[in-house]
Design brief:
The complex is a heterodimer of chains A (361) and B (365).
Chain A lengths: L1 H6 L19 E13 L11 E13 L3 E5 L6 H8 L7 E6 L2 E2 L5 H8 L2 E4 L13 H11 L9 H10 L16 H13 L5 E5 L7 H18 L2 E6 L2 H7 L2 E6 L2 E6 L1 H6 L4 H9 L41 H5 L5 E2 L6 E2 L19
Chain B lengths: L13 E12 L2 E13 L4 E5 L6 H8 L8 E10 L2 E2 L5 H7 L4 E4 L13 H11 L6 H14 L5 H4 L9 H13 L5 E5 L7 H18 L2 E6 L2 H7 L2 E6 L2 E7 H6 L4 H9 L40 H5 L5 E4 L2 E3 L7 H12 L5 H5 L9
Parallel strand pairs in B: 3-8, 3-9, 6-7, 7-8
Antiparallel strand pairs in B: 1-2, 1-4, 4-5, 9-10, 10-12, 11-12
Helix pairs in contact in B: 3-4, 4-6, 6-7
Classes of the chains: A alpha/beta (361), B alpha/beta (365).
Chain lengths: 361, 365
């Protein structure tokens, strides 16, 4: 089921009617060569500091009804990518197409109709809502801003939204602080869904939640996607969560995508040493696997994105790296033509495990 | 107690009995810990798991007099550390024990060091605090030694740097170094890797394992991460709403859980092997500790309850299931059936042992 989503149809270059719904599998978002650089200010007056290349040449495609999981560690640029593709940040280079429309450099006013179709949900919705507004007011706000409050049904639409995310109608009169973390995330989702968007950027939506509640929200996200045909860009650092929810996965490191493919491809036939190290760092809740797993412990920390290594960004921590990796940046390539792409010069060297690493039997 | 056997057969190093700790808040009295008992034996790693508000950290803080004052109060209980009741110990005595016989590592490494003092100064201070006779020079050598042990690269240079020049993972290594420098007999690690990235977590776990091997300290690993528990611990204590709901050996807890909450936690977990078709969350919201539900605090969210009176009226005792394995559930003999149902729904072989050999209760309910 995930396979046909990934291979379905060529990219639509002709814009589709913006506010219409397209069948599952239609390309919604196409990002090519996206860069977002931030200038660091050294002091109060000196503006010519280093440039942090938070996102440095990223390609993404998301189709309706599909979840693209974007994983990586802090500072890898995954959140910046999420914010830039929906134009909360101005891209430095590259192109962003939404349903075939080039939105890369649209002005705020020109973006307005697109805002309805692309919404963002953050880790803690508490910080993005007015604490003095009731939940009802919070949900009505986007509708009023886009002048569709009355036409969408007014209070009835608010009730509908509460119902959609599993809250009861009397919750509308309460304030955000009266809710637990899981319920607040439901409110955040309801607000994001108010304008019936096609794309949700979910930035660590379940990371702050306890496991038992996290599972509730994950199931809710899956149900909403089925029901509404939503496309998700699901940004997270938790590989197990991404494995569970995503149809396709992209692994980021220092502003670059190192590997992308179906979860099966990325998790089972891992083609990049960084992904391999990330996966081996996840502890598995099964004590009988304790000594049976291959563990790769990377040396050192992630390099400073203001002065990334030459060549392959991962080479300073990679046990496969040699001189070539310092000189030549490996392009993201589809070696077998099956949509599984990796950015590594030596994927064939991946199977031998570095010395000192306990090997699976 | 005698029916919670040690792996080593030795007497417990730490014995917590009926601990009750409350906090006064504007909303009312929060019963953070309401009657917790567990043992830690020499050399073993005990995982204390539970979600936020389960009381897992407050229990540990209560032991060593670090409960936030004046809001927090230890109402009753005992905590025998090598025969000495920590809850009755004077603040001075607790200061002596902390950092020497009992070491600590907390979740947020960045707020644990003083930002305006060099890292080395702080490690040396920690050493000299409990060893008055050691000279500055000797203390510095010890500091270098222990920093090397926890894997600080280039410690001769790093020792004179300030905390801001360290990454989160490096600070956590320093915290671990300070916790083990006096070879404590008990190490309390409260979510030691939670704030760190996966690849850094793996590094810290390695250091923690190494430190544990080196010092042979009995370790309490407080975490919400079942994966971490499965990988690191010998025994497990599962907490919910300020109480222990299940305890046992790591294989007992993971392969034949006997409390519906433990089963709920496992069924909620997304799997790296991708085998869970659909997660089975624990329904409802976390408990309100000002008005903890009557009877079994888990009853409003329990998959087994079915409106039965004991669940609503009686606090279930932590009763023995098999040697070393205890569960606080009135209907713990029905848990295997629940596990089977969950396993069917998720497609994951939870509680493997239960599935292979259906225990008492299969077929009922």
């Amino acid at each position: 089921m995930t396979g046909d989503l990934a291979t379905m149809g060529p990219a639509s270059q002709v814009p589709l009617p913006l506010h219409e719904r397209s069948p599952k599998g239609t390309e919604i978002l196409r990002v090519r060569g996206l860069k977002k650089h931030f200038a660091m200010r050294l002091g109060l007056w000196e503006r010519h500091g280093d440039v942090v290349k938070a996102v440095d040449g990223v390609d993404l495609t998301i189709r309706s009804g599909e979840t693209l999981g974007l994983v990586g560690e802090s500072g890898c640029g995954k959140s910046t990518t999420g914010r830039t593709v929906v134009r909360l940040l101005e891209p430095t280079a590259g192109t962003i197409h939404f349903r075939g429309y080039d939105i890369t450099h649209l002005s705020r006013r020109e973006l307005r109709p697109f805002r309805r179709e692309m919404q963002v949900v953050f880790q803690d919705p508490q910080s993005s809502v007015n604490p003095r507004h009731t939940v009802g007011e919070i949900l009505a706000e986007p509708l009023k801003l886009h002048d569709v409050y009355e036409s969408s049904g007014g209070e009835k639409r608010v009730q509908e939204l509460l119902d959609l995310v599993g809250l009861s109608s009397n919750h509308a009169k309460r304030y955000p602080h009266e809710f637990s973390g899981g319920q607040r995330q439901r409110i955040g989702l309801a607000r994001a869904l108010a304008l019936r968007p096609q794309l949700l950027v979910l930035d660590e939506p379940v990371s702050a939640l306890d496991v038992s509640i996290q599972a509730q929200i994950i199931n809710l996200l899956e149900d909403l996607q089925d029901e509404l045909g939503l496309a998700y860009l699901f940004i997270a650092h938790d590989l197990s969560v991404v494995r569970h929810i995503a149809h396709r996965v992209a692994v980021m490191y220092l502003g670059h995508i190192m590997e992308t493919g179906t979860p099966e491809q990325v998790y089972r036939s891992t083609g990049h040493p960084y992904t391999k190290a990330l996966l081996s760092a996840v502890s598995i809740p099964d004590p009988s696997l304790r000594d049976a797993r291959e563990r790769i412990v990377l040396q050192g920390d992630v390099p400073n994105p203001a002065s990334p290594p030459s060549g392959c960004p991962f080479r300073t921590r990679c046990w496969l790296a040699d001189e070539r990796c310092a000189v030549e940046t490996p392009p993201l390539t589809d070696r077998l033509g099956d949509g599984h792409m990796t950015a590594c010069h030596y994927p064939e060297r991946l199977s031998p495990v570095p010395t000192g690493t306990p090997l699976a039997q | 107690m005698s029916d919670v056997p040690a792996l080593s057969g030795e007497a417990p190093l730490l014995s917590i009995r009926d601990l009750v700790t409350v906090f006064d808040t504007p909303e009312g009295i929060v019963r953070a810990v309401s009657g917790v008992s567990y043992d830690v034996h020499p050399g073993e790693v005990v995982g204390v798991v539970g979600e936020s508000g389960s009381g897992k950290s407050v229990t540990a803080m209560s032991l060593v007099g670090l409960v936030e004052q004046p809001a927090g109060r230890i109402v009753s209980g005992r905590a025998l550390f090598d025969g000495e009741d920590l809850l009755a110990a004077s603040p001075k005595r607790l200061r002596q024990l902390r950092g020497s016989q009992i070491g600590f590592v907390f979740q947020d490494p960045m707020t644990s060091l003083n930002p305006v003092l060099r890292v080395g100064t702080q490690v040396v201070e920690a050493i000299r605090l409990h060893d008055r006779k050691i000279s500055r020079r000797e203390a510095r050598d010890r500091a270098l030694e222990v920093l090397k042990l926890v894997g600080i690269p280039n410690p001769e240079k790093r020792i004179d740097q300030y905390p801001f020049q360290y990454s989160g993972g490096m600070v956590q290594r320093v915290m671990l170094a300070m916790a083990i420098v006096h070879r404590p007999r008990l190490l309390i690690a409260d979510e030691p890797t939670t704030a760190l990235d996966p690849t850094i977590q793996a590094q810290i776990l390695d250091v923690l394992r190494e430190a544990q091997r080196e010092t042979r300290a009995a370790t309490i690993l407080i975490t919400h991460d079942l994966g971490l528990v499965a990988e690191m611990c010998d025994r497990v204590v599962v907490m919910y709403a300020g109480r222990v709901v299940e305890s046992g050996g790591v294989d007992q807890i993971f392969h034949r859980p006997r409390h519906p909450y433990t089963v709920g936690l496992m069924a909620s977990l997304p799997r790296l092997d991708g085998r869970a078709e659909r997660l089975v969350p624990v329904p409802g919201q976390p408990p309100n500790l000002v008005q903890t539900p009557s009877g079994c605090a888990f009853h409003p969210r329990c998959a087994l309850r079915q409106e039965r009176l004991p669940c609503v009226e009686l606090v279930p005792p932590l009763a023995q299931i098999e040697p070393g394995h205890r569960s606080a559930c009135h209907f713990s003999d029905e848990v295997p059936t629940l596990v089977a149902a969950v396993a069917r729904e998720t497609g994951v072989a939870l509680g493997r042992d239960l599935l292979v050999e259906p225990a008492v209760g299969e077929g009922e309910a």
